[in-house]
Structures are given as C-alpha cells and as structure tokens.
Design goal:
alpha+beta; globular; 13% strand; OB fold (Dihydrolipoamide Acetyltransferase, E2P)
Length: 714
C-alpha cells in the first residue's frame, strides 16, 4: 500500500527541482537503485546481519527504487508530451487548422481546441500542436473534426499570478496546448484535406458524438437542469451557469459535477443490478450458471462506456480502475473493496500520467477514498457492527433500523470525505463549505435514487430517440439538488474563506493523513501529530506584503493594519480576484468601493502609497515620473522601461521592478521584515523547466527607446 506513496515522492521531487534534469541522469539514478536491489538480493540478504538491520536496508533499497521509478516516469512523460510553445503574443494572424474539441459557453460562444496547420508568420518547427481559442462570434455549424480558417490573437500560456500560485503554463504543457487566444472574426469552415490517421478520426468522431449528445440533452431539458444533466452524462460542464456552479461550491456539492467514484459506482451498479435481476428471473440460468459474474462483466462494460462518453478525467479514470478491480474480485471470488484496490489504481495513474499528482482532482478524490476505506476497515473490526446486529430484535424492527443505519452511514461518509478533502479545497480554492454535511445528507439520496438511475436509462433510450422520458425524472432530481444548493448557500457563513498556505504545510498534512490511514498498528496515531504540525504551519504563515502582477498592470500593498489594498485595473481583473481569493477575501478589487483611491495617491503620472506606509511604493504610469520617484520611493513598479540615464541613480536608491525585470522574472511577492525586504518571483520558484523557459527580453535599442519616451511626453 505504500508503493504509490513512494512513487509520488519521486514524482514530487522531480517537479520540485529548479532545473530540468537530463534523461540520462534520470535513467542512471534508476539504474543505480536497480543495481542496489540486485546486490541486496544476491549478497546482503544472506549476510550475517540482524533481522532489524536487514529490514531497514531492504525498506531503504525498495523505497529508493520506487522513488527513482516515479522520478524517471515523470521525466519520460515530460519528454513524451514535448511540443512547441509560443514565445510571445502573436496576432491578429490567420490560423488554419482542425477543430479537436468544442465546449459551449453559458454566455454564448465556444471554447475550441484547434490543431493548427499554419499560423501566419510561424514556421512549421515553431507551430504548436494545439491552441485554445475563445470564439465569441455566432457560429452554429461548427463541429469537432472540421477544418477551419480564422483570424485570432494568440498569447503564450500564462504563468502563475503570484509566486507559488497555480501554474497554467505547466498544465498547458502536459495538455500539449501551445497558446491561448480569441478570434476576431467568424471562423470559416473549409474542405477537409487527406484522411487523418485512424486514431485521430476515432477521437474526433467520439468528440462529435459527445457534443451531439450534450446538445440533445440541453434541447430536451432546457435551463440549468439540462446543462447539469449534460455535464453528468458527457462531462461537458462549460454550459452550466456560473451562479449555479458557485452555489454548488458554497454548499459543498461541487463534487457532484466531477464525474468520480460516486457516479461510476452508481452507473455500473445499475447495469450490474439490471442484468443480475433479469438473469435471476430465468430459473435454468440462475440455478446452473454463475449469473453474478455475468452481471459483473455487464457492469464493467457499462462503466467503460460511461468512461469514454464522459471524457475520461483523472477522477473518472481512478474510479474506473477501482471499479474494474472490484468486478475482477467478483469474478475471482475475492474481497471486493480494500485499500490495496486504491493503491493499485493510484500506482497505474501515477506511472501513466505522473503530472496528475499535482492536480486537485487526483488529490481530493484519492484522499476521500483512502479516508473512507480506512474508516470502514477500522469499523469492521470494532464492536460497532456486532452491537448493531444484537439490536435487531425482530423482522419488523429490521427495516426502520436499516433506514437509520443508512442515514448514519451517509452522514459519516459525507463527514469523513469532507474532512479528508478539506485541506486540498482550502489550499487550492481558499474556501471550505461550512454546511457541506447538511447539503450532502439532503442531496445524496436524490443523486443515488433518482438522478443516476435515470442517467443509465438516458444512455439506453438515446439510440431509440426516447431519452426525453428518462430526462424528465432526471431533470426533476437535478432541480431539487440545485434548490438545495441555492438554499444552503444562502445561509449565513455558509462559506469559510481561508488565506493561502505554504506547500510545506499541505505536505505535512498529506503525510500525516497517509500515516494515519495506511498503518494498522497503534503507531498510526503519530500521523495526527504531523497533521497538527501542518495546521500550525498554515496558521502561522505570513502572506506577502506587496504583490506585483506578471505584466506590471496591477499592484497590491498591505498597510500597517495588515489589510491588502489592490490598485484598480481593468487589464488584470482576473489577477486581482485571484489575489484577493488567496488572501481569503470574498470581495472584489479594493478599488471598487473607493478604498484603494484613499490608500493610493494617484495622478496622471504615478500612484504612490502614503508616507506612513511600511515602505513607499510608487506605481509609475508615465516615464516622466521616474526621475522624481527614484528619489522618494523605496520600491518603483512600472510596466514601462526605466530610462538608461536613470538606471544607476534609481537602482542605487530604490528597488526598481520595470518591464525588463517583469519579462525576465514574472510576478513578484515581497515581504517587509526587520532585516529588509525578502523578494520572491515566479522565475525563481518555477526554475528553468520546459514549461517555464524564460522569454528573451524585448528591451528596445537606445534609438527606439528615445522615440518611445518622446511619444509619451507628447
């Protein structure tokens, strides 16, 4: 059961490096531990050593071999998905390519993944494999697999909005997306070229099938209920209105949208039960053949179809692997659910897609499943089950007690899964649902008894064109769930907002939780100490006092009362919202109510903090302000270039973060301490990795620079 933990440690060490390791170095590390394992098998195992020393040596060699295996798997995966990435903003430019995937937006338009054949001005060697475009123009006949011509503005994948924040560029690297942008004209559908490879044609046909299914569902079941039904059946969640998603998150029901173990178990369980009951009604088959195993095969096939049609996310893959192992246990007459099933599923996913270790889907789904199995395994050996069995006095008392036990089990399941996934929700989303237990107790019976059984009927009836008869009860159940989410989210303090944590705090909680759940001996309780240490580290963490956007379009400064003031900027609204969310604030930019204007003194040239601020920060808007602010400010921030004639004077008096520094280092975070300033930027945190290669500065030559400043003065 500790095999995936060791693999995960090796993968985490790979992603924590500041420099990309070479492929030969990774293979050499793996070969070294492999030789040590062979040496142990033939030399050390038979040596005259005590059993304790042999056990320690054996565990050390095994852990090193597994960690090096995870390290090598992560390196091979990085090399295998390597693809060109745009180095700078491109466009407006003409793009020709094939639409790989489409997703409908609630406000209209599409999000499209395009495999470009040509991008004006780019050579074939620099052409990304995929780009993601937002299509705002009305386009009714666009389908996956079509060849299109369009005009678009494309940007490189963005880096983190703050040091230590989520890295969009790393996610884009493993999805082989080399640019993000938007169209400025309606796409033109072209004639297809030569036939694509068979695998590509199958993928595009599957994408068209999923899109057609989602459109039929939203047509037969309009409104938010149809969008949620399409998300549950096809994995297309982009059409769900944002307010519905927000209500589900606040109420602690957002996991219902992520197709995971709950959905997979219900779908496969319905298929299993249907086939089993039908076969049991046929007496010759029921008496002579293993119909339970036949039903298990039917459930496995039904779950596989659901995996393909739902898009195959990480949580869905994990659920299907576990489901396959469970049905395999039925076929082999072995115990169905155990921690080894989860360990094997985690091992397969980590070896095939090591980057999933960093995804919130992997972390939350596996944490909930591990905690639940650990709790119920502990409960099965306790006296609780025997006590419940003694309380069954008669047949008439059985059913009320069964309903009572169902309610208690549902409450414990929701509570344990919520507690296990809460640290990851707080770390990634800075929020925890305060009344998630109440919302899940009300919504889960509808999900298990109405929505997902009706979803199975939708799959069965859709080829016959009769899916609307199953969508009606499914829509009724979804409407009740959305009403519950809206009601719970309206309660006071339904959502707890928390500031960001350091990664070390989350790592302590994870290792403490694994120690507590995986061991069976009394020393498992030591994991509670690691969890407490992680919580203490999270509570005592000091957030940065100054934040600077990666493009220099936004600045946030903390005052003497520890309140964060964000300078208003329409260009970096997403960055401002993310900063405030990481700060644990629900409100929008501070400047929306005038407080930022009171904190920052602004004119047409610059914005400066008050004199009683911990440090004097100047945000320069016009080149003419550099000369004056270099003398009176401690930190100068600007999206402009610092004039060369002022370079020596400014750098000797103040910390200057101009366009050159921002292009080289990205976003900044600054802490003000008794011993001076502590500075971190995204370049130092990310290191030199394939998805974070530093762009060459676009610093203009002296003649060009003089022209820029003369134009600014005019």
């Amino acid at each position: 059961m500790w095999i995936p933990v060791a693999l995960g440690l090796g993968i985490a060490f790979y992603y924590a490096l500041g420099v990309e390791p070479g492929l030969m170095a990774s293979l050499s590390l793996y070969a070294l531990f492999l030789l040590l394992a062979v040496f142990w098998q033939f030399r050390v195992e038979g040596a005259a050593l005590s059993s304790e020393i042999k056990q320690i040596l054996c565990l050390g060699v095994a852990a090193g071999l597994l960690m090096s295996t995870g390290f090598m798997a992560a390196k091979i995966r990085t090399e295998r998905v390597a693809a060109p990435v745009l180095a700078k903003k491109t466009g407006p430019v003409e793009v020709m390519g094939v639409v790989v995937a489409l997703a409908h937006q609630p406000a209209g338009g599409w999000k499209a993944i395009v495999a470009p054949e040509s991008i004006g001005g780019l050579t074939q060697d620099a052409l990304p494999l995929r780009i993601r475009l937002t299509i705002r123009q009305k386009q009714g006949d666009l389908r996956p697999g079509q060849r299109v011509r369009l005009r678009a503005v494309i940007n490189p994948p963005p880096g983190p909005v703050a040091p230590g924040a989520f890295d969009f560029a790393r996610q884009a690297w493993f999805r082989q997306i080399g640019g993000y942008g938007y169209t400025i004209a309606r796409p033109e559908v072209l004639e297809p070229l030569a036939r694509a490879p068979l695998i590509d044609r199958m993928k595009r046909r599957l994408a068209r099938m999923r899109m057609a299914m989602a459109e039929r569902i939203r047509t037969d079941l309009p409104g938010a209920g149809g969008a949620v039904a399409a998300a549950l059946l096809t994995g297309d969640r982009d059409a769900i209105p944002p307010d519905v998603v927000e209500n589900l998150r606040i109420a602690g029901l957002a996991h219902l949208l992520a197709i995971s173990g709950l959905h997979m178990a219900l779908v496969a369980g319905v298929f299993f039960a249907m086939i089993y009951f039908v076969l049991a009604a046929i007496e010759p088959l029921a008496l002579r053949y293993p119909i339970r195993k036949w039903a298990a095969v039917a459930g496995l096939l039904g779950g596989g179809v659901y995996l393909v049609l739902s898009g195959g996310s990480i949580s869905t893959q994990r659920a299907y692997i576990m489901l396959s192992l469970m049905f395999l246990a039925v076929l082999l007459d072995r115990p169905v659910v155990s921690m080894r099933t989860v360990a094997l599923a985690a091992t397969i996913i980590l070896l095939t897609t090591p980057e999933s270790l960093l995804s919130v889907s992997f972390q939350m789904s596996f944490s909930a499943v591990v905690a639940l199995i650990s709790f119920y395994e502990w409960r099965s050996v306790s006296r609780t089950k025997k006590m419940y069995q003694r309380e069954i006095l008669s047949w008439y008392a059985y059913w009320p007690q069964k309903f009572w036990l169902y309610g208690v089990g549902l409450a414990m399941t929701s509570l344990i899964a919520g507690l296990a996934s809460a640290p990851f929700a707080a770390y990634h989303f800075n929020r925890v649902a305060a009344f998630g237990l109440a919302a899940n107790l009300a919504a889960m019976p509808l999900m298990a008894g109405v929505i997902m059984p009706a979803a199975v009927l939708v799959f069965i009836l859709m080829p016959l064109g009769l899916e609307r008869y199953a969508l009606e009860p499914m829509g009724w159940g979804i409407d009740r769930v959305l009403a519950i989410a809206q009601h719970v989210s309206s309660w006071q303090s339904a959502e707890l907002l928390l500031p960001s944590w350091p990664q070390s705090a989350l790592a302590l909680m994870v290792m403490g939780g694994l120690w507590l759940c995986l061991w069976q001996r009394p020393w498992r309780l030591a994991g509670g100490g690691a969890i407490a240490a992680g919580l203490m580290l999270a509570v005592t963490y000091q957030p940065p006092d100054i934040l600077i956007d990666r493009d220099g379009a936004l600045v946030a400064v903390r005052d003497s009362r520890h309140a964060l003031h964000v300078l208003p900027s329409r260009k970096a609204y997403f960055t401002a919202v993310t900063w405030l969310r990481r700060e644990g604030q629900k409100s929008r930019m501070t400047g929306s109510d005038g407080k930022a204007a009171a904190f920052f003194s602004c004119d047409s040239l610059a914005c400066v903090t008050p004199e009683d601020a911990p440090v004097r920060v100047s945000y320069v808007l016009d080149p003419r302000a550099f000369e004056e602010d270099c003398q009176r400010a401690d930190i100068i921030v600007s999206s402009l270039w610092l004039p060369w004639r002022l370079s020596r004077r400014c750098h000797g008096h103040a910390l200057v973060i101009d366009r050159t520094a921002l292009e080289r280092n990205g976003a900044y975070a600054i802490w003000i301490g008794d011993h001076g300033l502590r500075i971190r930027n995204t370049a130092s945190v990310r290191g030199v990795r394939p998805w974070s290669v530093r762009q060459k500065t676009t610093h203009p030559p002296p003649g060009k620079r003089k022209h820029i400043y003369r134009t600014a003065r005019r």
